[in-house]
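Continuing the batch. This is chain 6 of the set; chains 1 through 5 are on the previous pages. Same settings as before, nothing changed between runs. Recording input and output for traceability.
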Amino acid sequence: MQLQSLEVHGPDEFEGAFQAATKRQARALSVVSDSLMFNNRRRLLELAAKHRLPTMHTQSLWVEAGALMSYGTYFPDLYRRAATYVDKILKGAKPADLPVEQPIKFELVINLKTAKQIGLMIPQSVLYQADKVIK
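Output for chain 6:
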């Protein structure tokens, strides 16, 4: 399997990128979640469904919007940890003295409606591992 990237600079380039992916016989897309992609996620996911391409993301918000699946940091946990840091700083701790923490909780979210729409069957063993399944 060869990984290839498609670069777009604006939403007007999405259709051409999907046509190029189809021409290259892409079997799936992993989408970088920058502001361009996130702000245009509905359009991007419509095109993915139209071209029957499953998409993988790092944030569950994408799956709730219609992406196939995501695996990434569990954001509510990050927000709680950030609040702890803010509390320490407001109480006088120097930010440079606080330890750097890495996320410890991750979540796998799968959208079965999208899987059905693009004709993809998710194995039961994968569904058992999911933290959330959208039916």
